[in-house]
Fold this protein.
Amino acid sequence: MVVGLREFAHRTGNGSGTPVLDESNGEELMRVQPSVAVALGNRSLESPGTLYITSRKLIWLSDVDMAKGYAVDFLSISLHAVSRDPEAYSSPCIYTQIEVEDDEDEEDESDTQSTGALDLSKIREMRLVPSDSTHLDTLFDVFCECAELNPEPIEQEEEEGEHNWVFSADQMVVGGGAEEDGEWPISQSPTSVIGLSIGDEGGLAQPMLELQINDQRFDDAEEMVHESETKDH
Amino acid sequence: MLFFSYFKDLVGQEVTVELKNDLAIRGTLHSVDQYLNIKLENTRVVDQDKFPHMLSVRNCFIRGSVVRYVQLPPDGVDVDLLHDAARREARGA
């Protein structure tokens, strides 16, 4: 999975110039929107082009330069919105924010490399301007649908038993049982009180698996500002 | 599922969503899904000087995985109830 915006020029050779999709990954074309211009970051609008919305990513292909195109996975699109405010941008557009690879000290907001070439992977904003702005709401909805199709991939979860959340002090469990028999110096004779819950009926007969001391005498003392214990003996 | 249900109940209220990239967006909660993707309406950026590019947009879809905080109306939260519900949910998980 590629984070961020990248170049994309993989078109089918049948002359239609449509992008090649990754069918093995279940990628499908959801919508084709011709006459869409793209503006990356602060750069000027690039057109004419066609927007291809697939179930996995956005692809913009130039209509005139067959080698020019951009793609970004929906997994990398942090947010998208319909922007109609002329003060925000001259044309009504779909505004998107793109997540970029986390570099350590990214103080330099510039998206041009030292050579002056555009570093697409650092582009954080992209605007898509359809020539016909009545398409904006539909495009927004398709973006939403596709975003919903691309939730965060689920990592291999640990087994439930290993995920040891602790909720309170009285939940502390000391693992015992067969494998740790030799380690505990405490005998299991009825005279041994350590490790047995006070008031634990039948506890004497049980192997010591848990250290559960529910007696409030063992709780931390409450802070008392003016201790009024008698001091004279 | 707890917070999915919780946010569903908050639909229609004003919230401020702070993203992991520090952008904070205020708007009316329109909808939420199981991934906690959030749709806001009538959005505006909280600190406009820091983020001039996104002045005001009509509708906005925020990917759940990029949300850092969702700031809620103070009187829209029953803290004790939420606290207990969260504990129960975590225990049951």
